[in-house]
Design a protein that fits this description.
alpha+beta; about 40% helix; globular
C-alpha cells in the first residue's frame, strides 16, 4: 500500500502553477485504486439541520485524521432524472478511502464509534438502509 502525502502534492502543484511550471501527478498516485462506500439515507426533513451540523462539525473533522482517508460527502437528492429510486432516500453519504483495509481500521476506531452513531440515529430505516461498497476500476 502506497501512502501519499496529499497536502504536500497539492502544495507543490499550486506552487508550480503559480510560477507557470508544468506539474505532473506522481505515477503511484495516478495508479491508486480507491474504495468508495455509499449509504442511502432516509432523513426526516425536520432533523436535517441537526444531522448536517453533526456531520460537518464532528464526523468530518474526525474522519480526516485517519490513514487512507480520501474524502467524505453528504449529498441531498434534488430529483430523479431517469428510472426509479426509493422516494424515501433523500440523502447519500459517500466515503472514499485508499483501501478497504484502511476503511476497516477507521470503522473499528474509537473516533468512528463516537461520531457515526449520532449520524446514524437520523436514518429512519435503521438496520435496512443500503450500504454499498465499490472498488475503483
Amino acid at each position: 500500500v502506497v501512502t501519499m502525502n496529499r497536502r504536500g502534492i497539492l502544495k507543490s502543484m499550486l506552487g508550480a502553477a503559480a510560477i507557470g511550471t508544468a506539474v505532473s501527478v506522481p505515477r503511484a498516485w495516478a495508479q491508486t485504486k480507491h474504495i468508495r462506500l455509499y449509504v442511502e439515507m432516509d432523513v426526516d426533513p425536520a432533523q436535517e439541520r441537526e444531522m448536517l451540523d453533526l456531520f460537518h462539525n464532528q464526523f468530518v473533522p474526525e474522519a480526516v485524521k485517519h490513514d487512507g482517508y480520501m474524502r467524505v460527502k453528504l449529498l441531498k437528492r434534488r430529483s430523479v432524472l431517469q428510472g426509479t429510486a426509493p422516494a424515501t432516500h433523500n440523502y447519500r453519504f459517500e466515503l472514499e478511502f485508499e483501501s478497504e483495509e484502511q476503511r476497516q481500521r477507521w470503522i473499528a476506531s474509537p473516533g468512528h464509534q463516537r461520531v457515526w452513531p449520532p449520524i446514524e440515529r437520523f436514518i429512519k430505516t435503521k438496520g435496512t438502509y443500503p450500504v454499498v461498497l465499490y472498488d475503483e476500476m
